[in-house]
Amino acid sequence: MITQSTGQIDATTAAVSIRGVVKAFGTGDARTVALKGTDFTAAQGELHLVVGPSGCGKTTLLSVAAGTLDWDEGEVSVFGTVLNNMPRSRVTAFRRQHVGFIFQQFNLISTLDLVENVSVPLLLNGVRRGEAEQRAAELLQRLGLAGKERKRPTQLSGGQQQRVAIARALVHSPRLLIADEPTSALDRETGHQIMDILSGAARTPGRSVIIVTHDPRTYSYADRLTEMEDGRVAGVYQGPTLRDFISNHH
Amino acid sequence: MFHLALRMLLGDRAKYIMLVGGLTFSSLLMTQQNGVFQGLLSWTTSHMRNMRASIWVVDSRVEQVNETKALRDTDVSRVRSVDGVDFAMPLFQGVLKARAADGSEKLIQMIGIHSGTLFGRPAKVIEGEIEQLRIANTVVIDELAAERLGKARDGTGVPRPLRVGDTFEINDREARVVAICRTERHFFGYPYVFSSYDQALQFAPRQRKMLSMILAEPKPGLTAAEVARAIHAETGLAAYTVPEFERSTIAWVWRNTGIPASFMTTIILGFIVGVAIAGQTFYSFVLENLRNLGALKAMGASNGLLSAMLLFQALTVGLIGYGMGLGLTAAFGFAVADNGQPPFLLQPVAILRTGVAILIISSLAALLGIRKVARLEPAIVFRG
Prior knowledge:
By secondary structure, chain A is an alpha/beta fold.
């Protein structure tokens, strides 16, 4: 039997705080409520996994936390900044500065080379092209992609592409890293390599990494794990309860 | 970010080529057809540039320079008596039949000019002496007439153009060539044959009134427009300055022929083809890049930035297509310049108009993509 922890996080250390968020898609008979008054908190300096069956609202929760999706009710704050009623342009600017994204399908631009892909967040933040490309190349080298800087994403393996995506997400040193199923398209060994990198990224002071995943192989990397079911949080696990959860799911 | 927008565009080679090709074709069609149309229109007023008078006096019912309604011989004196007229000379113009060297009959544009002053003579004589027009039965022909009425070469049977000293027949009367001149092509395509006014009346079939027009010049210090108004007021004849007669002639062509409608249809089709190809291809390019654009949006690219990037991409292909279309049009112009057929006149305003049309096409194409991107939820990238 898994025991659920209280999951309490001090407000001063909370990276993301979601309170009573409701989000519905469609209207009339086609209306589907994806989040039903969901509460969620992610702490700074932690790698936080969000798990649950398909359609339980994980990705919607992630989108709301990242400020890429409007919600209907509730309150969302990221690093103390309340996103409610914030103009869209300011949310966009907030995302640009403070959030890094890793997508399931990598979403690298196939017509650009690796350096160009990775330099995008820096360019969006006003860094000059030369400096942006230099910083992008250095990060690619640190992530084991030296010598491949001018290759196109399609010339790389899936694991290498995901490392490029991680480089792109980290290059502007965001405080919040959002990853959607980062290992689902990768083999076991590559998946572990990717999780090692993300786990290391979470150790940066003041940063939080939130990962939505289906992949039980990744559970052992979590500092905290939120289980979702039918648009609500079913449980938050850390420490011993997390170990029980992991052993139960292996 | 704009260099990345350009790289994204150039990276999709097939769509890039399709976009540039479509816009090149559109630009070529609009500019080339406009050039031919303007060339054709310029032919309608070539009389005025070939005879170079400041004031053209015609019957009050005449609307365009290629039309003739004969005046009375006394009208020349009436015009000369108007205050402000420096001098006025009679002019005959008519389409006559000439016999070519091979025996066939060709139509010619006969121009009879005043033998004393030779006022109305062609600007450029390339061989012979125009003053010899004062000798009986002589003519000055243009290069087209020399070609069309060419003589059979002795012994070989190969035709050659007429030269100074050769003779041919106009209405069964012998005419001797004393000079060959260069003219602008006539609207109806007839070659020019110049003669003295009195001689032209001998070549032409006899009619009660033979005076076609009166060419006049204003006294120094007066404008052609002032004197033309005085001539009209005192004689009741229509008196046009060159710009007025050009406008009136071109307006007549617009009102009375299907030529403008035909060319305008092609030009409009060029525009529509441009909109269709560029719009569809660019929209398809945006749709294929929608996830990338969504990812950029999620990473913090604003709608304004993404719109500017799409506009930049569309305007880039627009500019390239426009330049290539203009280049091909210019090549066409050079290719037909020697022959003069079809007529071609590329005016700066036509180049500007095509540029504006391509700008509109590119902007419309970009607008379709911009609408799509503006409505795009950045969260689309989290969906499978």
